[in-house]
């Protein structure tokens, strides 16, 4: 019974670590994408305000 308990502990710890690392990875990726989009939007605004013809 002791081995089964430690196996359950190991699986639970691995699952918890996986969930936490997934959450941090998701949040970091989301923040990184937000910053990248923000920079892209600023570049487009600057490009559109300085030129009269839109780029397609």
Automatic annotation (TrEMBL):
Keyword Membrane annotated: yes
Segments passing through the bilayer: 6-26
Alphabetically ordered keywords of this record: Membrane, Transmembrane, Transmembrane helix
Name of the protein described by the UniProt record: Membrane lipoprotein
